[in-house]
Design a protein that fits this description.
With about 90 residues, this protein is of the alpha+beta class. The protein folds into 2 domains: about 1-40, no CATH class; about 40-90. The protein is about 65% helix and about 20% strand. It has 2 helices and 4 strands, in the order ββαββα. The strands form 2 sheets. A two-stranded antiparallel ribbon has the order 1-2. Strands 3-4 form a two-stranded antiparallel ribbon. Helix 1 (about 15-40) runs antiparallel to helix 2. The radius of gyration is 21 Å and the shape is flat. The two termini are about 30 Å apart.
């Protein structure tokens, strides 16, 4: 991908640049999550399968966020592995 600058020259977008932008976005999301959690410290009733209890809302949100991140990481890893196998097969 190529980006145009105001002086008419072009700059190629790189993986490093994309990784930097993803890192900046992730930091912004993390800061927003921390602020949200700090404002929601009240205890809530939680029921999941056969487990019941009262926990701070921030803790419940943190656990739900981490669980979601793990699910995305597992599915992403599976998809990347699938694509790599496909590329290897077609390369032969």
């Amino acid at each position: 991908m190529v980006a145009n600058t105001s002086c008419g020259s072009t700059i190629r977008l790189t993986r490093t640049g994309a990784a930097w932008m993803a890192t900046c976005v992730a930091i912004g999301v993390f800061v927003a999550l921390v602020i949200f959690m700090a404002q929601n410290t009240g205890r809530v009733q939680v029921s999941f399968l056969a487990m019941h209890g009262r926990f701070p809302l921030a803790l419940v949100l943190l656990i739900a966020t981490v669980a979601g991140m793990l699910i995305v990481a597992v599915l992403g890893t599976a998809r990347i592995s699938q694509l790599r196998r496909l590329v290897r097969r077609r390369g032969r």
